[in-house]
Amino acid sequence: MITNETTEKFRKLKLPTPFYYYDLEVLKTTLDVIKKKASESGFKLHYAVKANHNPRILSLIASYGLGADCVSWNEIDAALKAGFRASEIVFAGVGKSDNEIINAIEADIFCFNCESIPEMEVINTFAARLGKKARIALRINPLVDAHTHKYITTGIAESKFGINTWELEEVLKKLTDMKNLELTGIHFHVGSQITRLSVFKTLCNHINELQEWFSVRNSELKIINVGGGLGINYDNPEELPRFDDYFSLIRKFVDLRPGQTIHAEPGRSIVGQCGSLISKVLYVKNGTNTKFVIIDAGMTDLIRPALYQAHHQIENLTSAGETENYDVVGPICESSDTFARYIELPETRRGDLIAIRSAGAYGEVMASRYNLRDLPQVVFSDEI
Question: Whole-angstrom Cα distance, residue 118 to residue 116?
């Protein structure tokens, strides 16, 4: 929560904008809740590092005993430096490079989430050269529509992600010849920012069908990894995600076999609500039919609205005047550099502080230097 007291501290300290503000108490509360709910339902969690790899954020999450879900060697390296144990790191991604695979094998990570037969062959080759056995889980495309933005829907037909079910017979056949791979389980990820819990119920049904398929072929699976994807409420930055409903539903509808454990890879749902992008109003410009609030943050600082047409709650922290309708836009030389159209804000003037809320996930980590802009700075709640 950004209180009046917090806003006053921003003003007194004259912090240069734009900057990401992380409320560590919000993050700790979220971690307390998700850890408790996951433990009650028997889940092992691996935090999806791609959501936010800020070193302080990573270290705090690692201190709660979570594992890590990584999609590059650099993410694995950052996770290890932050205190995550190699034995609890999973390595996902459709295009792992040779060096990334070698480094991960040498680090003795918990598991590779494999997405194709060619990838399995490469991992097996390098594991043999290193005299090691690499643990893998098969990422299977469950053909489940996540009902979210097409760029973050990953489990449908013709997706670049995952192994198709009709390939599994060949996968098991080839695994018998790959002596340096150990199959530990199966893995799924149907998309991101999923708010319809029925999507996860559909996934559970597919998991049960595949469990039976593997059982008939005497293939023992120790791990069922349901991936991530649980969404947050961008309209209400103070609301925690539906952790209880999410874990309870999956635990109810997935038929675990004796000795199996269930894993999940939350990212956005852990860090999304703890972060806000704080910006300053440069100009208020009259258009033909609207007023433009031009702020000093742009799509280079938070690309989600431009890339995904994503909605974020926007607040004027320093005005209490009568409300007007504005388009909130950035300074980048792109018409897509727009954060919101025709939204109500208190009467807004040059110098007002603007908060773009729920920006803790896929905000700072996706920032760029397009237009040769500086990267946004970072401020933590315990620093002001």
Answer: 6
Distance between CA 64 and CA 227 in Å, rounded?
A: 19
pTM of this prediction?
Answer: 0.94
Higher pLDDT, 237 or 156: 237
The answer regarding whether domain 25-270 maps to CATH 3.20.20.10 reads yes
Burial of 51 (C-beta count, 10 Å sphere; 0-12/13-18/19+) = buried
Tokens of 240: 């925690």
Cβ-in-10-Å burial (0-12, 13-18, 19+) of 79 comes to buried
Per-residue pLDDT tens digits for 230-269: 999 999 999 999 999 999 999 999 999 999 999 999 999 9
Q: Give domain 4-20+273-383's CATH superfamily.
A: Lyase, Ornithine Decarboxylase; Chain A, domain 1 (2.40.37.10)
SS3 27: helix
- Between CA 57 and CA 160, with CA 70 as vertex, the angle to 5 degrees is 135
